[in-house]
Amino acid sequence: MESQPSYKVSQEVPHTKTPVSEQADMQPKGIGMAVAFDWGLAVQLLVTPFITLLLGESSILKSFKLNPVMDTVVSFLLSLPFVALLAIFGEGVRRGWHWTRRIQVGFNTLGFIGGFFSLYNVWQGSKNGNYWAVVTSTILLIFSPLIAWRLSRPATKKWFATTTSSEARKRHGGKWPLLILIWSIVGGVLQAIAALVTIAR
Fold first, then answer.
1. Does pTM top 0.85 for this prediction?
2. Residue 157, exposed/middle/buried by CB under 10 A (0-12, 13-18, 19+)?
C-alpha cells in the first residue's frame, strides 16, 4: 500500500509590527522647534545681563545702585536657576517626556495670545525707525502657534505617549542637538537685544 505524500504545513505566524518598528514609522512634528524655543529662552536669560552692560542700559537691579560690573554678576547669578529649568525642560521635550508636551502646547498658546499685544511695540517703534520689536512679534505670532499646532498632531501625541527616553535620544541624537543649539543661540541673543531695546525706547 502506497503511502500518501506528506505535506509540511507552515506554522509561521504573520509578521506584526513591534513597538520598535512602530516608533521608527512615527514622524512626530515640532520637536526641534519646541526645543529651540525653550533653549532660546534660556539663552536670552543667560546673555541679557551682559548685553545690558554692553548697551549701557539699566537693569532690573538699578534700584540697588550697584556698579555696572557687580550689577551684571548679580543679574547673571539670579538668572541661572531659571536658565537651568528651561534647559532641562527643553531636554525633556527632546527625550520625549510625555508630560512636557501639554505644558509646551499651553505655553506656546499663551505666547501666541501675548504676541498680539507685542504689535503695539512694533507700531510705536516704527515711528522712530526702531524695528527690533518685530523679532519678538515674529517669535510669538508665527513660531509659537506653529509649535503648539505641530505638537498637537495625532502622530506627535502618540509618539510622546509611546516612546522611551532612550529611543527619543537616538532619534534626536548626533548633530541634531548641536544644530538646535545654534538656532537657540541666534534666536536667544536677537530676542535679548530686541527686549532690551524695546524696553529702553
1. no
2. middle
